[in-house]
From TrEMBL, chain A:
Domain ABC transporter: 2-208
Protein name per its UniProtKB record: Putative ABC transport system ATP-binding protein
GO cellular component, one term: plasma membrane
GO molecular function, one term: ATP hydrolysis activity
Coiled coil feature spans: none
Automatic annotation (TrEMBL), chain B:
Protein name per its UniProtKB record: Putative ABC transport system permease protein
Protein topology in the membrane: Multi-pass membrane protein
Annotated region described as Disordered, given as residue ranges: 207-236
Ranges of residues in domain ABC3 transporter permease C-terminal: 290-408
Organism: Larkinella arboricola
Family matches, as InterPro entries: ABC-4/HrtB_transporter, ABC3_permease_C, MacB_PCD
Length: 208, 415
């Protein structure tokens, strides 16, 4: 469960953002739509506490993130939040398998190869586990980053423009997989996008 | 999955720049190690053999040559001196012992040295099998000689003129092996020792033979020549040099007297060897400086390649931070990349320097019969390891500090 309350943030006195309150229960999904420059990524970074809000609060699974120390924030994020970025990024020197296991490792959790294989089979890249990530197509890479986001079974999945660089077929597939995976692990799914193709997929929408 | 594995993967991902950095490190360490090894072993060999010899008496010429030929058996002798005069000069209360040496012949490039028991005692060499030479044409051979030539007790051989093994053989007089020395790690290991009288005898035969062969051509001078020769062999016995030990350091004074007032030369090994080492030292210092420079360049190469790859890997770093990595963890991971290169360079450098030493030793054994094959790790090499590790870590630390300044959100959003 994720809930935000009166979040504001400013990069400079003239560039201030205040964001609508959102609430997303477990197994639910919220789509946040907005054009470029409306602070979509900023909002997502605030929700993930990659940025500290100027005021307001964010609660994930009954923990108020704004009350945590920076070190606690990092470990809380590692364990409870899975993030998918606009362009899939990986540690390019490592194999797909190692990139998945890295989510476990950095969150100080046991490295679960079976879960990685299971996810890979389910998301359709089981044949690529020993490849480097840059040998895969964009659609495949985005599916790997979904798998990486759910490796630790987080309570919240945040996706920043997950489909903007994908064609229609891959776009539909990625959205379906995102929803399916977050429901399976009982997470709240929040997707931030300007991609109008996603409008019809989500009933719960917030316009920035 | 752990930090070391990620570091290793990163190094493998950039094989060329890792190879360059590793190669430079290896090269620097190889040169330094090789210098250390050579320096130590030459120093040991030189000081072990010079121990207890305060002065060398020989024919006029280069004092260094006299020392090298008489003590180390690695240069040509300066010439012969009359035994009588040498004995007269060394009949001095300041002189404790005087060991006569006579050389000029060899067997399969091993030098045949005419001397007496004092020479053997001086090096504290012991006879392993058989006995020490006693009579004319008896020979006791060094351990290396026995090993290489396969000579055994009871075998006979004839020496050849000169020291390079290519001289004409003294066919008439055969040496008889009566004993083999235990290995002593001194110059004795590669010598064939025989009484002084053998050398005189051999050369007497030799000269006779020579004069006979020219007899026909020089009939007029025949008689005269024969006479000369006999005179020479019986009365003016010659040796090559004398190794001298003083009773006290004041003996040094004798050297000047001999050099000024006689036809002989007295050379002081301590001075000549210092001179030799200071000549060599210039080269050694230059090489060492070069090796340190190469190691520093290795450090710069690590720095540049890490700096460049970190620019490319900024997003990766931010990603790992957003996934829960601590900044110290990432910093450590980058340090490991420098450290791993240093360690690889160190290990390969040690191996290569040993190979280099063995090659050098083979060469030295062939030319000088000196073996330098102690390949154990020297204490100084741990210092080299320390320096290499320091260079690797420093070179990695400078760019890696950027991890602490990184703004995660901005880096992730920049893309």
């Amino acid at each position: 469960m994720l809930q935000s309350h009166q979040l504001t943030f400013s990069y400079s006195p003239t560039k201030r953002f205040s964001f609508p309150d959102i609430r997303c229960n477990d197994r639910e999904a919220v789509l946040i739509l907005g054009n470029s420059g409306t602070g979509k990524t900023t909002f997502l970074h605030l929700l993930a506490l990659l940025l500290r809000p100027e005021s307001g609060s964010i609660t994930i699974d009954q923990t108020d993130l704004t009350q945590l120390s920076p070190a606690k924030t990092a470990s809380f994020r590692a364990a409870h939040v899975g993030i998918i970025y606009q362009r899939p990024h990986f540690v390019s020197s490592l194999s797909v398998m190692d990139n998945l296991l890295m989510a476990n490792y950095l969150a100080d959790k046991p490295q679960d190869k079976d879960r990685a294989r299971e996810l890979a089979t389910h998301l359709g890249f089981a044949d690529h586990l020993n490849k480097k990530t840059n040998q895969m197509s964009q659609g495949e890479q985005q599916r790997v980053s979904i798998a990486r986001a759910v490796m630790n079974k987080p309570g919240v999945i945040l996706a920043d423009e997950p489909t903007s660089s994908l064609d229609d077929v891959n776009c539909a597939r990625v959205v379906a997989l995102l929803r399916e995976q977050s429901e399976q692990i009982g997470a709240s799914l929040i997707v931030v996008t300007h991609d109008q193709r996603l409008k019809d997929e989500f009933s719960n929408q917030v316009i920035l | 999955m752990n930090l070391l594995k990620i570091s290793w993967a990163n190094l493998k991902d950039k094989p060329l720049s890792s190879f360059l950095s590793g190669l430079l490190m290896t090269l620097g360490i190889t040169i330094i190690s090789l210098l250390l090894l050579l320096n130590k072993q030459l120093d040991e060999q030189f000081s072990r053999n010079v121990k207890g010899i305060d002065m060398v008496l020989g024919a006029k010429g280069s004092p260094l040559q006299l020392i090298l030929s008489s003590i180390y058996q690695i240069d040509a002798p300066t010439g012969n001196i009359p035994l009588e005069e040498a004995e007269r000069l060394t009949r001095n209360p300041m002189i404790k012992t005087a060991i006569p040496l006579s050389m000029g012949d060899s067997y399969q490039t091993f030098r045949i040295v005419g001397t007496d028991k004092k020479y053997v005692d001086h090096f504290e060499a012991t006879v392993g099998q058989g006995t020490l030479f006693q009579k004319e044409l008896e020979a006791t051979i060094g351990a290396r000689v026995a090993e290489v030539t396969g000579l055994k007790i009871g075998d006979t051989f004839s020496g050849s003129h000169g020291l390079d093994g290519e001289g004409e053989e003294h066919g008439q007089a055969q040496y008889k092996v009566v004993g083999v020395f235990n290995p002593s790690n001194t110059v004795i290991d590669q010598l064939i020792l025989t009484p002084l009288s053998s050398v005189w005898a051999i050369h007497a035969h030799h000269d006779e033979h020579e004069s006979e062969s020219v007899e026909d051509l020089e009939e007029d001078h025949d008689h005269e020549h024969e006479h000369d020769h006999e005179h020479e062999a019986e009365e003016a016995r010659e040796i090559t040099s004398m190794l001298i030990k003083f009773r006290n350091p004041m003996g040094m004074m004798i050297a000047r007297g001999i050099n000024n007032n006689s036809k002989l030369q007295a050379a002081l090994p301590s001075i000549e060897i210092n001179r030799l080492f200071s000549l060599l030292g210039i080269g050694v210092d230059t090489l060492r400086g070069l090796a340190v420079a190469i190691m520093l360049i290795a450090g710069i190469s690590v720095f540049v390649s890490l700096y460049n790859s970190l620019k490319e890997r900024r997003y990766e770093m931010a990603l790992m931070l957003s996934m829960g990595a601590r900044r110290t963890q990432l910093f450590g991971m980058l340090l490991l990349e420098g450290l791993v290169l240093s360690l690889i360079g160190f290990v390969l450098g040690l191996i290569l320097s040993r190979i280099g030493l063995l090659l050098f030793s083979m060469q030295a054994e062939q030319n000088f019969h000196y073996s330098l094959n102690d390949i154990s790790i020297l204490p100084e090499e741990w210092l080299v390891l320390g320096v290499a590790v320091l260079i690797g870590i420093l070179a990695a630390a400078l760019p890696a500090l950027g991890v602490y300044r990184m703004n995660i959100s901005r880096t992730l959003a920049e893309e």
